[in-house]
Amino acid sequence: MHTERKIALVTGANKGIGRASAEGLAALGMTVVVGSRSLERGEAVAAAIGGDAVAVALDVTDQDSVTKAAKVIEERYGRLDVLVNNAGISGSGNAAPQDAVDRVPSAVDLATVREVFEVNVFGVIAVTNAMLPLLRRAEAARIVNLTSHAASLTLYADPDGPLAGLPSAAYSPSKTALNAVTLQYANELRGEGILVNAVAPGYVDTEINGNTGVLTPAQAAEGVVALALLGSDGPTGAFHSADGPLPW
Length: 248
What we know:
The protein is of the alpha/beta class and about 250 residues long. The chain has a single domain, classed as NAD(P)-binding Rossmann-like Domain (Rossmann fold, 3-Layer(aba) Sandwich), CATH 3.40.50. It is built from 7 helices and 8 strands. Strands 3-2-1-4-5-6-7-8 form an 8-stranded mixed β-sheet, with helices on both faces. Strand 7 (about 240) and strand 8 form a beta hairpin.
């Protein structure tokens, strides 16, 4: 089926920033594909969003699931205009930062680091590569990767900086790696007009931090939506926040 409406896939869209991003894109007239590990939960969100939102089963750590999701989108729409790589985990479940098990590297469980990288880095590569053939069929595709202020090596390198008291051996390094991957995709796809950016939503009230954040998911989604709507003269390979560019 061919449609003039832009098609957007959001991973991990059944809750939090992912859901808010899906809602924001749908409100602008896009056809939103709600990616969710649980198809049932995804379908409930798609129904709540309304319009022509649909759900697709998508576990970013399962290559078969990723491949099947790309096939569903191809068969239904033939292309993809926007990919929002939102799915991510902290490694500490739904704990507040002060209760996180992902703390100093000397005490971290290596299995936790692997699990976090599997979702936050390898999952993004798997999904992006599966969707690239569809993105290349769009007139002006956009890829938005959800990162974090905690990805900034510059901020962590300052012993008096805002992140000095928040050690992390899994989550923060995974988001630093995601930023690096974002740059690699941006450079590869620059000549094709596909813009690839990373956005740090800020400290948002979601399950990933035990709902201790101060921003609403809808506020966080504003930056995601803005990057999904970039014109041809927009940035690519940039590390964004609501307050402007962040230092690498």
